[in-house]
Amino acid sequence: MNISYTWLKDFIQTDRTPTELSAILTDIGLEVESLGVVQRIPGGLEGLLIGEVKTCGQHPNADRLKVTTVDIGADELLPIVCGAPNVAAGQRVVVAPVGTTVYPTSGEPFKINKSKIRGEVSEGMICAEDEIGLGTGHDGIMVLDEGAPVGMPAKTYFGLQDDHVFEIGLTPNRADAASHLGVARDVAAFMRCGYRMPDVSAFAPAGSQPLPVAVEDTAACPRYTSVTINGVHVKESPQWLQDRLKAIGVRPINNVVDVTNYVLHELGQPLHAFDADQLAGNQVIVRQAKPDEPFVTLDGIARKLHAEDLVICDAEKPLCIAGVFGGIHSGVTESTTRVFLESACFNPVSVRKTSKRHGLKTDASFRFERGTDPDITVLALERAALLLTELAGGQVATAVSDIYPDPIRPFTFDVRCAEVRRLIGKAIPDGEIKAIIDALGITLLAEANGVLTVQVPPYKVDVTREVDIIEEVLRIYGYNNIEIDRQIRASLNTSPKPDKEVVQNQVADLLIGNGFREILSNSLTKLDYADDPAHAVRILNPLSSDLDTMRQNLLFSVLEAIAYNQKRRHADLKFFEFGNTYRLDGEGYIERQHLALAVTGSRLAQQWNHAGKAVSFYDVKAAVDALLRRLQISGWQESDAPASHYAYGVSYERGGKALVSFGSVTRSALDKADVAGEVFYADFDWGGILKAIRKNKITYREVAKYPAVRRDLSLLIDADVTFGMLKQIAERTERKLLKDISVFDVYKGDKLPTGKKSYALHFVLQDEEKTLNDKQIDAIVKKLIANFEKEAGAEVRS
């Protein structure tokens, strides 16, 4: 909701700056989300001055240019080269000095610089009206009255004033503040000052017989007021009215529609203007719509009304969906001379349901569905009627028709001052509480033993109980005025550790940073993809045979995504997906969350300086290891990946359970999903990962001051000995000084004995307390060799 600072000052007299007022509004619960400056014309004529042309002569090098000197109230005259045919000495003109940015009516803004024009110095520009956004004329420069003060800012001379607009994030319960009047009431309550209401004392109808109105559903329309204005001339609104509407983001249309919009945003009361000559039977009926009754709304869309929709009709047809949207034949046109003006109060629930039913959201429905003030309908009607007589030349032809059979009563209840203090947490005196209640426009009916009997006006639709009054008191007293004890006596509800969403986002960021793309697949798949069909969760009413089973793994979801891309010539893929798997367990179900990674195609696209290289097992292993390092998970044991999904691969296990399995997907699985080439896949037990993280402890270790030492060994080992086995032997052999072990070369070939392979291992040794010497290093290497020979049958190759 947008509120104009200038408009707001029509209601309250204040010298607070827009910035100060912005802070006040936020403090009292009307949060200002932004504060912007609005200018009637772009640039607001900033920097432009009124000048007097002192001399004007022919340019020596150009027939169509004049050389002038201009007085702008400075110590020296400005030399300006001007091409306008009407420039002459003695004229008062608008001048843009050097450094001024000019905003033309059409085209981009430009800055005035000192220049030479055909050899003559020019230190400014004498402006035409289209060059500064004041019009479209360009026949010559603007020539002002002789009395225009030299040196006066053009902004002051033309009476331009900047406005400031508060964008307020209005909460749904604050229907009373959905207008300039509503905001002014709150500000006045905070500042303990009065506010002005629009003066409608001049309202005087020329006739007494109002146009006949019948309200058939007074529950949906508790109050309906109207008046007729004759002799209206529909035309463009005056500039001041257009400026105010534009400032808050409302597009001016014509003087009649603009007046209804103006009063809506001024007082919070929606109005609707009908062409009175188009009312069949010269009457208005407020009734429920007939089922599927046809109706064309103002946007030209044909709709079918619902039996619970409230409509405004004439004797033959619906004219308007009450409180929501007008009909295509209900509005005023350029030929309208008689206006039937409506100001009503509609039931919020009825309007809310109708608005949602038809998908229509308007400024009127925004207010009606939250609740409007039933006591302001007549004031708003008279205010709009007076504006129409002033701006459209109309005359009030009838008295006000006011149908209000069952007046809405104020809310009356008791408020305990002790309870106010208890809930707010501060000893606010009774006098201060009563002063705030009074400043809010709430009537104090009685007081006895610290209990206040209050009467709340109907426009405060959300203030119906004692606790609501306490909230109102706190708003105006100020949240910032409630001190917080040094010691907080409360139990804090901490979120679970680790935060699953935070960890998932961290992992997603890591994978995306390494070239992976996230996919999201359907949890429904076909039975043919199940690992264990006997324990598959089947769908009782499947949409198709391909969507009849809850998935037991993420593998085939990922493979289907790969196949889809491959068929569209996207072969180099790196995917990841977070998703759940489902399994039938007796009479219950098991649901587990997994993280799947998959890589296929080329690691690097073919370029002129290198050939393309296909991804391998070690690409998925690198991603797995990087993820586990990021999550600070270690201490796993390696074993072979399950053969059901992997042609070959590895599992990392802790406590006998696999944290992750990864490797090359079997050809049979690839064929099922119609995937070409080789796919390397990793499946994380995400629940197990989160449990492992829960045991992590953050520790700090000082950076080592002493250098690390590298030693390499080449070992001849049996073909079935894995690097994991060698790593475990090395870590058991030297627990303190061995910091890292890796394999940097593997050889298998006919030069080795049958059933053998060669591993070249790289060891990093480091003592954090002193520099290692050759004797210590050699002793460690000898122990490693001895244990490799003993436990793995290794031979050291020279």
General shape: extended
Strand content: 25-35%
Determine the mean pLDDT.
Answer: 90
* CATH-level-4 superfamily name of the largest domain: Bira Bifunctional Protein, Domain 2
Number of strands: 43
Number of domains: 6
What does this molecule look like?
- The chain is an alpha+beta fold and 798 residues long.
- The chain has 6 domains: 2-34 and 168-191, Phenylalanyl-tRNA Synthetase, Chain B, domain 1 (2-Layer Sandwich), CATH 3.30.56; 42-157, OB fold (Dihydrolipoamide Acetyltransferase, E2P); 213-403, 3-Layer(bba) Sandwich (Phenylalanyl-tRNA Synthetase, Chain B, domain 3), CATH 3.50.40.10; 411-480, Phenylalanyl-tRNA Synthetase, Chain B, domain 1; 500-694, Bira Bifunctional Protein, Domain 2 (BirA Bifunctional Protein, domain 2), CATH 3.30.930.10; 709-796, Ferrodoxin-fold anticodon-binding domain (Alpha-Beta Plaits, 2-Layer Sandwich).
- The strands form 12 sheets. Strands 28-32-33-39-38-37-36 form a 7-stranded mixed sheet, sandwiched between helices. A 5-stranded antiparallel sheet has the order 5-4-3-6-11.
- α10 packs across α12.
- It starts with a strand and ends with a strand.
- The mean pLDDT is 90.
Give me the secondary-structure topology.
Layout: E1 2-4, H1 5-8, H2 18-27, E2 32-38, E3 49-58, E4 66-71, E5 78-82, E6 92-97, E7 101-102, E8 110-111, E9 115-117, E10 120-122, E11 124-126, H3 154-157, E12 163-168, H4 180-191, E13 213-215, E14 223-230, H5 239-247, H6 255-267, E15 271-275, E16 284-288, E17 294-296, E18 302-304, E19 310-313, E20 318-321, E21 325-326, E22 339-345, H7 348-358, H8 363-368, H9 377-391, E23 395-396, E24 401-403, E25 411-416, H10 417-424, H11 430-439, E26 443-448, E27 451-456, H12 466-477, H13 500-513, E28 517-518, E29 524-525, E30 537-538, E31 549-550, H14 555-566, E32 573-585, E33 588-600, E34 602-604, E35 613-614, H15 617-630, E36 637-640, E37 646-654, E38 657-665, H16 667-672, E39 679-685, H17 686-694, E40 709-718, H18 723-733, E41 738-747, E42 756-765, H19 774-792, E43 795-796
Parallel strand pairs: 13-16, 28-32
Antiparallel strand pairs: 1-12, 2-12, 3-4, 3-6, 4-5, 6-11, 7-8, 9-10, 14-22, 14-23, 14-24, 15-22, 16-19, 17-18, 19-20, 20-21, 25-27, 26-27, 29-31, 30-31, 32-33, 33-39, 34-35, 36-37, 37-38, 38-39, 40-42, 40-43, 41-42
Helix pairs in contact: 5-6, 6-9, 10-12, 18-19
